[in-house]
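ok new one. same drill as before - structure tokens go in, u give me an amino acid for every spot. 194 of them this time. try not to just spam alanines like last time pls lmao
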């Protein structure tokens, strides 16, 4: 049986130790809802970027159960105040606009916003762009920080296991951004500011 020379074996152990230490220093545990980012450019230089965490369906009932219709009931994290859905998992889902835009025909200044939604069992959903973009979930949501609220109609869509944001119907100056999860897509129109 062949054995490694003592020096080679010690070097191998040292390398493995360094490698495993480096891995744990790079972020630790694997998230159940991994992070993602997607971007789209409109016009000459209007960049739209969504940063979010992607929960999976995992055989669960999403709409009306995991994600309640209307505002969620308050709890100890929200100071017992009702709050909207965070449109993702973990930290706030955010959208950054490099230039002023129009969302569903309404003006929205350049900047980074947290996105929250108020789902409805039937009819229109409310999509909220809030100036407080660095929270964990919607627990500390403050309506006074809303920059814009728009009403949109969700659509039936093919099964999507992992929550995702994306862009459809792109033109040079407009797009239809969307959240797609389970069998539902929530689109909202974005265009360059007029």
């Amino acid at each position: 049986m062949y054995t490694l020379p003592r020096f080679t074996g010690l070097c191998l152990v040292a390398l493995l130790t360094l490698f495993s230490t480096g891995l744990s220093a790079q972020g630790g545990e694997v998230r159940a809802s991994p992070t993602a980012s997607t971007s789209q450019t409109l016009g000459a230089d209007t960049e739209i970027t969504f940063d979010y965490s992607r929960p999976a369906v995992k055989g669960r009932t999403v709409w009306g159960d995991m994600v309640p219709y209307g505002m969620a009931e308050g709890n100890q994290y929200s100071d017992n105040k009702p709050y909207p859905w965070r449109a993702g998992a973990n930290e706030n889902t955010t959208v950054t606009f490099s230039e002023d835009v129009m969302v569903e025909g309404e003006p929205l200044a350049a900047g980074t916003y947290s996105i929250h939604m108020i789902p409805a069992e039937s009819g229109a959903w409310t999509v909220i762009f809030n100036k407080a973009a660095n929270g964990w979930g919607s627990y500390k949501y403050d309506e006074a920080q809303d920059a814009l609220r728009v009403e949109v109609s969700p659509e039936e869509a093919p099964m999507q296991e992992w929550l995702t944001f994306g862009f459809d119907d792109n033109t040079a100056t407009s797009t239809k951004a969307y959240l797609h999860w389970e069998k539902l897509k929530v689109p909202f129109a974005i265009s360059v500011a007029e």
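Helices lie at 6-25. and btw The first helix runs from residue 6 to 25.
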